[in-house]
Each structure stands twice: as structure tokens, then as C-alpha cells.
Amino acid sequence: MPDSDVKAPLLNSDPETVEDVFDNTYKEKEGPKPPVVIVWRNVILMSLLHIGALYGLSLIPVACTLTLMWSVFCSVFSALGITAGAHRLWSHRSYKASLPLRIFLAIGNTMAFQNDIYEWTRDHRVHHKYSETDADPHNAVRGFFFAHIGWLLVRKHPDVIEKGRKLELSDLRADKVVMFQRRYYKLLVPLMCFFIPMFVPWYMWGESLWVAYFIPAVLRYTMVLNATWLVNSAAHMWGNRPYDSNINPRENKFVTFSAIGEGYHNYHHTFPYDYASSEFGWRLNLTTCFIDFMCFLGLASDRKRVSKEMVLARAQRTGDGSHRSG
Q1: Domain spans, the chain
Q2: Sign of the alpha-carbon torsion through 309, 311, 314, 318
Q3: pLDDT surpassing 60 at residue 303
Q4: Which H or E run contains 103?
Q5: Pairing with 92, which of 84, 127, 213, 317 sits 20 to 30 Å away (CA)?
Q6: What is the pTM of this model?
Q7: Do 283 and 108 form a contact (C-beta atoms < 8 A)?
Q8: Do the beta carbons of residue 244 and residue 269 sit within 8 Å?
Q9: What gap in Å lies between CA 268 and CA 283, rounded to an integer?
Q10: Phi and psi for 305 in degrees, rounded to 5?
């Protein structure tokens, strides 16, 4: 069970009051939009990555069972580095983690290779505070492709940079695990994201280096990337809005399954400080199960939770009428 119910996020990400951290009051600037500048290096690298992942799919029939199991383990481990780590712990401070757990999550986050924790958290806080505006890094109003992957293929909108610089990120700078990862990120990523996933199957049970590279490394990495991106794209476009019909994020069961619990997105944007990112506890929510287990082991604590009364009141006040508790 959660340690306590709270009514305000414990997040210091702007000079405004804590209660206003995720209040989307930003207004778009009038005037001409800046030109879209394509980053061709990213276009080429992402294209090659996805071609490699498709080839990796064709190698699955010849891969060892242990290799496939190892790929699943690496997928879940790296995904938790994003969901339980960069997202629920560092971005939203929805629970507290001990040093060993923070190191574990930082390693998984490095294997996920989705920018270092500091940059990921900064962009995510901007995304919440200025959701669906030019200051949102993956503004879903610009379409599915942009919200999914396109935002990584072009230069950031100037508003994203401007608003990101104004965030108060002293909590991240004070975290030695976060800053260590940031300092050595470019050295750690090739090791954690590609070399170790490839080396273990080759060395431990004799898998071919070819298969070990394209399945546990390339295919696994690409699948985790796309699962995360679906939260930015599909979960902002398709599904119901039982908690707040005035915002774009939706409840999307497919995204919830593929992103290990992150698809309850209307709930999450309504109550971003809730460690479970859902009112349904463990249901389709491996990340919540993981955090609860860490609390059971004494490695995590102070899970922030929204009371059922508050959830029901909000659903009745601003929801689209689709809310079903329990």
C-alpha cells in the first residue's frame, strides 16, 4: 500500500509555486513560426537503426532461446531505467530511492540510450508544463509522426530551449548519480546499450556475434525506443479522457502494455505526482509493481498517491464521463 496520500506534487522545477508546476498556462507567441531545420545525421542514423531492427526480426528463428530471454531481460531493465527512473523518480519525484536503487536505475537508463537523465528530465518537465505548445519538445498537435520520432529529426523549437533554460533543476544537479552519468554518458552508452547486450550471449552460451548484435542490442534498443515514443504520440491522440477532457493525453491500453504502465496518460497528466501513474495499482503496470517491490525491500520509500476521493471528484468535474473506478 502507498505510504501516504498527498495533494500536491513535490517537485521544484520552476520559480512559481509548487502547485503551478504542471499548470499549462503558456500562450503561443504570435508571429511567423521559425523554419523547420532537419538534422540529417539523425535522419540517417534512425533510418539505419530501424533497418537493422527489421533485419534483427528476421534472425529470431535462428537465435538461441537464452538469447531471446536475455533480450527480454535487457528490454525490461532498460525500460525501467526510463519509466521508474528518469520518469517517475527523477522527473516527478513521486517516490524516494536509495543510492543502490538510483545506481541500478541509472544503469538501466544508460542501456536505454534516450539521452542522459538530466536532459531527459529537463525535457519531460518542459513537456508537462507546456504540453501541446511550441515549448513542448514533442508537441502532439504537430501530428503523430512528429510526436513519435520527428521531434528527434529536427532542431528543437526555440521555445523548448528558452523554457528549458528557465527550469530550476538544482535537485538534479545535487544528485551525484545523475551528474556522474551525465559526465560519462558518451563513454557509458556504447558499453551499456550495445556491447554488453551483445557480449553476454556470445561469451556465456556461444551465440554468434552477428545474432547477438542485431537482436539483444539493435532490435531490443529499437523496440524500447518505440515503446517510449508511443507515450508521446499514441497516448496523446487515441483513447478516452476520464479525468480531464480539456487536455490531449488519453488512456491507451496498448501503450500501457507496451510501455510497462505508462499508457494511463490522461490520469498521469492530471495527477503527475502519483507514483503509480494510474488509479488501478498493478493492473498492466509493471513499473508500479517494481517500485512497490523496491519499497518492500527497503530500497524505496515515500510513494506519493492521490486519494480515491480526489480522483473521483476530478473525474466528475472535468472528465469525459468514461470514468470507471476499480
Answers
A1: 35-234
A2: negative
A3: yes
A4: helix 99-112
A5: 317
A6: 0.90
A7: no
A8: yes
A9: 15
A10: -140, 150
